[in-house]
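Thread: "does anyone have the structure for this chain?"

Original post by V.I.:
We have the sequence but no experimental structure in hand. Need at least a predicted one for the grant figures.
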Amino acid sequence: MPGRARAGASSSQLYHYFQDRDDLIHAVIGVTTDGVLARQGELLAHLDSWAAIDRWLDSLTQDQISKQARGGCPIGTLVGQLAEIDPDARAEIATSFDRWEAPLRDGLTRMRARGKLRKDANPAELATATMASIQGGLLLTQVRRDPGQLRTALNAARNNLRHAAP
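Reply from O.Q.:
Generated one for you, tokens below.
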């Protein structure tokens, strides 16, 4: 059954709100990204200490425990559905990951300025490696229905981040 039928919406209703399929897809990407970021809210706003990073990473695992390891990453799910068939959607999803990664990168930059990271540490690379651990951990958690998979990936990310400490 098509998504439109499951939603009980006609084509005319959809096109009342969206100009076309692309407009609908972009709205879905935006709402999905906003939801992911909103759920992490204040934790993302203060990722400039080891304790804050630990709280954020722990919250990601707790979220998967509460969801019984179902659903994976909402943004990551969009990648599998859209990235290879829609270049504009792929670019927008990349921007979504950038939006999610930015608070960590910015927090690590502030930590480096305060001497909590080595001067040669690269906050952008550390943030990207952490996001890769999150995504891999979420994927394995979803497939194996085991939040321990995310916990293991996040512990590796923590170790990588701490390795950059002076």
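V.I.: this helps a lot. Residues 9-163 form a domain with the Tetracycline Repressor; domain 2 fold (CATH 1.10.357.10).
O.Q.: and The two ends are 56 Å apart (CA to CA).
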